[in-house]
Amino acid sequence: MQSTQFEQLSPRAVQVILDQLPERIRQAFIDRAIEINYPVEAVVEMALAGYLDREAIGFADCKPRRGKA
Question: Scanning 10, 28, 35, 69, which has the fewest C-beta atoms within 10 Å of its C-beta?
Answer without folding.
Answer: 69
